[in-house]
Amino acid sequence: MSGAGSLIVEGLSVAYGDALALDHVSLSVRAGEVTTLIGTNGAGKTTLIRAIAGLLPIRHGQIVYDGQEITGRPSHRICDLGLGQVAEGRQVFPSLSVRENLLMGAVIPRARSLANATYAAMLELFPRLRERLTQAAGTLSGGEQQMLAIARCLMGQPRLILFDEPSLGLSPAMASEVFRIIRRLKDQGMTIILVEQNVAASLALADQAYVLETGRITLSGTGQTLLRDPRVREAYLGL
Q1: What is the predicted pLDDT for the residue at 5?
Q2: Residue 11 — left, alpha, or beta (φ > 0 → left; ψ -120 to 50 → alpha)?
Q3: Any alpha helices (H) in the chain, and if so which ranges?
Q4: Below-70 pLDDT ranges, the chain
């Protein structure tokens, strides 16, 4: 997990029917850094994540990942280039065991030869999952399912991970654990794009951050700069 994963989004527009969800959005994600997206519900954050991952058609613009244009490529091809996603709502396979869920993460070509080693590493990183390998994923707690979703993503050998609301619905203790894991991944060189309801925690983690409002980038800067910005403090931190 190191050294790659840069992303450039240039003039990206996405529409649902006649409704424009993203309007010429541009941003840059540097390799090995955490880039946070903040904004109210409906601002377009999840749409942007899904568009980058190849899950939505793009009306206009360009997405370049590690020097390769990926605009319009199918999602499984984008995933095999090293771009992983931990989707909102966790989306584990509920009837499959924890072990089966993990192994599903390594089905893409880039990950197959390293599946055994990565599997062992995931059990070290997530000891709670090791205790529940034969348990159906749908019977896990919300926090355990989030751990499984992150571990399953890592089984695919990503260089960049898109996190969409990873602490949503979790207890404060489990939310803190999620942030600890994201920080650890950053320290190992992973590139991360983070959409997160806990604005203070996500900006504290961020090397750079963007504010998205009604489909447009309205503010950007380092995480610390936006934490101190009075507009962000009033709108998103209640200060």
Answers
A1: 86
A2: left
A3: 45-52, 75-80, 98-104, 109-112, 115-125, 127-130, 142-154, 172-187, 199-205, 223-228, 230-236
A4: 1-3, 239
What one-character DSSP code corresponds to residue 97? B
The dihedral region occupied by 58, where left means phi > 0, alpha psi between -120 and 50, and beta the remainder, is beta
Q: Output the pLDDT for position 90.
A: 75
Q: Residue type at 112?
A: R
pTM of the shown model = 0.93
CA distance 186 to 31: 10
Q: How far apart are CA 232 and CA 235, in angstroms?
A: 5
Task: Give yes or no for a contact between 44 and 214, defined as CB atoms under 8 angstroms apart.
Answer: yes
Model pLDDT, residue 3: 46
Query: What Cα–Cα distance (Å) separates residue 116 from each residue in 79, 127, 146, 229?
Result: 19, 16, 21, 46
Residue ranges per structural domain of the chain: 1-82+161-239, 90-157
Output the CATH code of domain 1-82+161-239: 3.40.50.300
Collapsing DSSP states into helix, strand and coil, what is residue 7? strand
- What confidence score (pLDDT) does residue 18 get? 87
**How far is the C-alpha of 238 from the C-alpha of 161, rounded, in Å?**
29
CA distances, 114 to each of 103, 106, 156, 187 (Å): 11, 8, 9, 21
Predicted local confidence at residue 239, as pLDDT: 67
